Amino acid sequence: IMQLSIVPALALLLHAQLGSSFILSCYFTNWAQYRPPPTIFMPDDIDPCLCTHLLYAFATIKNNQLATYEWNDVELYSQFNALKNQNGNLKTLLSVGGWNFEQKCTGFSQMVLSSANRQTFINSVISFLREYEFDGLDIDWEYPANRGGSSQDKQYYSVFLEEMRAAFENEAKQSNKARLLMSAAVSAGKDTIDSAYQIPKLGQSLDMINVMSYDFHGSWDPMTGECSPLFKGPEDQGGFIYFNVDYAMNYWKSQGAPAEKLIVGFPTYGNTFTLRSAANHGVGAPIAGQIGLSPYYRLQMKGFQIKVDWLKKSNFGGAMVWTLDMDDYMGTFCNQGKYPLINVLKKGLNLEQTSCTAPATKLPPIAGVSTTQSSSGGGSSGGSSSGGGSGTSGMDSGFCAGKANGMYPNPEDKNQFYNCSSGKTYFEHCAAGLVFDSSCSCCNWA
């Protein structure tokens, strides 16, 4: 009897040491600054008390070293991490990679291939994160051993994570600072999971495993489907029986991932489709294409509550949100307050009473970054890229002069477009994997 009582007692002790029992990780995207006014989204628009962890997407890899992507990333890093001056418990991570990140030659595959390359990258990560005041790194490799990657990626990814974890632990001892955190965004598709990951080894190295349990259905399917269904539906046949949150999360768990490290992905957007027949409009209805993505705050919120209840009963580690800016962050669309969807998660995960107070010592300013608030968006922000890979490099700051209000494609890059408002030029680009579609003035699948 005494032996049996030790286990729950130990669990309670660990629970107390870890603090809040759930994680709420929320992604900020550095292209949300190019949204049309008044929906431009900047780090200053983030509620510092909303999430336990904030993830900044995306950085890139150049010459096997961590590097900025957008022309003003360093300035945005400063604003992003300054949020910790309002919430001493907040943790921030820099996310590297993303769907559009090139894997070959300059990407993840090349970096993990040799011990020297891995060491170069890991050293750059430590210095980069410390310089810009992040608390950790989020690896968004989509996906090892897939999409042009090498079959060796699966093994080398595990080795890379093991080496980075050891380096982070060693650096923490030497610097007398808190160890840098490690998380990864991972696939929710069974076939990709099997080919990409040595799950038990990932579970040992990572602090958080952010399962991208969304985009189960879209324009690549012949029929309508929910973006992130919790369970298998009656219309699901064949391989589609695996395309749901419940199966994906429990598959990760069954293959050796610790449940407390598994973070369930919640999308704040949904898909919109063009139907073949208006009379057939249910789930599983034949489609002629996809119109694009719609912010989820226009859809029902009940699903988030159902999922968060399921998450808690399943003893998973928390929720991951993609993305902050697609929720009703201004509170003007739903009339249910700011961030209605994410607040459903915050309340459901019992995080409302979590302390949110300024730390005793504020973070020092990042060297070389002005503390003067800069304007968000606008015509002055283009054509001045210093990052070498800016999402808006080459766009014309005077494009909208004399043009009617509206959205116009960038003929040089299908992912980019101009938004003209009263003669002012706003540079924008679609989310990863999408192109601007003039027929609907929206972002659509290529």
From TrEMBL:
Key word Signal present: yes
EC number(s) per entry: 3.2.1.14
Pfam families associated with the record: CBM_14, Glyco_hydro_18
Residues in GH18 domain copies: 22-352
Biased composition (Gly residues): 376-391
Chitin-binding type-2 domain sequence ranges: 397-446
Protein name (record): chitinase
